## 1
Amino acid sequence: MKVIEGLYYSKEHEWVKVDGEKAYLGITDYAQQAMGDIVYVELPETGTELAIGEALGVVESVKAASDIYTPLSGTVVDINTSLEDSPEEINNDPYESWIAAFKMSDAGELDNLMDAEDYKDFLEEE
Amino acid sequence: MKRTSLYEKHLKHGGKMIDFFGWCLPLQYTSIIEEHRIVREGAGLFDVSHMGEITVEGTNAGEYINRMITNDISKKEIGQATYSPMCNERGGIIDDLIVYRIDQHKYMLVVNASNTSKDFEWLKQNEIPGVKVVNESDNYTQLALQGPKSKLIIEKLTSFDLGRLKYYRYVFTCLAGFKALISRTGYTGESGYEIYVDNQYAKKLWDAVMEAGEEFSLVPVGLGARDTLRMEAALPLYGRELNEEISPLESGLHRFVCLEKGEFAGRDALIRESENGTKRKLIGFEMKDKAIPRNEYKVLKDNKEIGFVTSGGYSPTLDKSLGMALVKNSGINIGDSIKIRIRKKEHNAKVTGLPFYKRNKK
């Protein structure tokens, strides 16, 4: 199970990559493996304001649809439209396949997330 | 959770085990899409030992079964298999099953895992003199070898001339040295076989089939691909297209309902339904918008709700999102535009014929 240094991780198996005020969000290697073949991603609309825990989008595998809840609050400023045609990219490269980019409303919320080491430990407990 | 005799084999192959109606079975080994494609192009091996086997024996066995199911087995010979719904008095489907005529006065019913105890109780309740119904589900292992290359694999393991085995026929023969029932049936839309053996031979037979299949790139296939394969072939699944509130006439199983054969459970209701026309019917549809339909999603036409999705999802063979739906049987035809309500949005779809996929018969 791949875990990358320098990213933030949520207990719901999402990763967050911070780039200035922007935060990119995707699902982890563990999440994509658990879901299996991903065949559809429902992206949010840019401009959507979300609070922590709100549904950002839906990732669907052959077997089931899984809601993706945002671990950060903010406004969606960008979405990865390439996933509309190639949702399987999440399986192939989960850490490059960001789903949405946020303008964070409170960077302090990052403190509630795990770093790579903590996430690895968390995975071992799962 | 109950385990089949092949549980260790699934773990060895890296199976992702899930709880399927109380059975611990593999959802997939590598990938549902990959396993699906291999069955369409080569061959795949499934452990379907969770299926139930109920034997019916006695001088009145044939007559009794014919009164319990909707299809007519009265003219079936030893060596034949028959698919049939089994209905309640209201014409709702208790289960769909395969009847094997084993002997002059002996039959084996193969039923869905989720329904085995219910079916057995229903059959016992309706038992008549001269009939003995026994639940033998725990004694058998069932393998399904499916795909265009399955014949080449089985041929290596038996001296029986498989060319003689027609669709929905079976034979008791020696397979890899074990006594087995080999049936030309399946649930994938491909050619293939279902094989029944005593549990004690399960592991050895699994290994023998896997080994014989190596040169044909045989792989084990899980329940995930079993579902996508059967959906493309529009084979109904109990609990989705079929349940006790749905009649076989509604779910498109007309040709397995023989109203003229005489008395059987559900006949009066089905005759009435046949005369008055069914209230609902099963349709196929294809998504026009990018979205995945799933069971229980609502179907709309001209802004009115007309029914619900029974099965839906991504079709690996056709690379489209497809589904089947049970809808009001009035004014709905192939080619019509409909909408599927997915979460909060309504997505465009088009009514299609069924099945979605049909194999090329050489």
Note: The domain at 279-352 of chain B is CATH 2.40.30.110 (Elongation Factor Tu (Ef-tu); domain 3).
## 2
Amino acid sequence: MKVPTGGGKTFLACATLNHIVDCLSPKYRFVIWLVPSDAILTQTLANLSDTAHPYRQRIDNNFNHNVAIYTKEMLLQAQNFSPATVNDNLSICILSYASLRIDSNKKDIRNVYKENGALENLSQYLNAEDFTLIDIIRKMNPLVIVDESHNATSKLSVEMLTNLNPSFILELTATPKIFSNVLVEIKPAALKAEHMVKLPVIVYNPHDKKNLIDSVIGLRNNLELATIAEEKISGRYIRPIVLF
Amino acid sequence: MELKNYQRAVIDDLQRYLDALIDTGKNPVAAWKIYHGKDAPKYNDKISAWRMSV
């Protein structure tokens, strides 16, 4: 899906999950939600874990509140990750691309591919070949959401995705690579028509790059404080964003 | 938070593709043809061939 920046990609992904699950009827409603950076991972995890957040509310409504959110660490420790939970819930695991790329030298990253006694129960239930998290994931044929998927086009990234044994992959990006087969494209004009692009536009030309970045981040943070205050009054959620 | 009109349209399109996928026995290339009304683009590299199944 090609969606312009600010077009609500994450909310769209949340709203599509039930359509995909209903259509494909997978044995396990298991979602791997891949993000390109730790910053986006933290933000996505916070939003999807917050039952008051519109993203989570959308998913909760579509899955009768039978939703479990996991980090890589929770999976590795089998924290609330059992045959019962994977059968009863829509399980969403939020992971960074880096946590699954096989060539990583980081020790904690390799844990996904290591034998892990904490996973024995689930491994046996799924008839997995070994007690590794990657094998458990593969056994459940996950639905994979790839956020900012233009960052996941290298040979290594494709191997990573293939290695998950996915039942379906939904890619979300504003800037798909030229070889991508775009299923749906939203034009920026559609956002403008829905008043998603707001005026005023302020243009100026500072000379120092660092000051510029500090300035816009400060402006964004101030706007966020204003929008949080606005949400408390009107209940209307607004997310200020900075584009570089 | 409600879906915007263009977001509803995206979900409708996705649903149309999913329906085609089921109708074709989960054959992504055939589903693509039904969905777009034309053959899927043909690329030479393996990445694109695999991505066709996305």
Note: The CA atoms of residues 28 and 53 of chain B lie 5 Å apart.
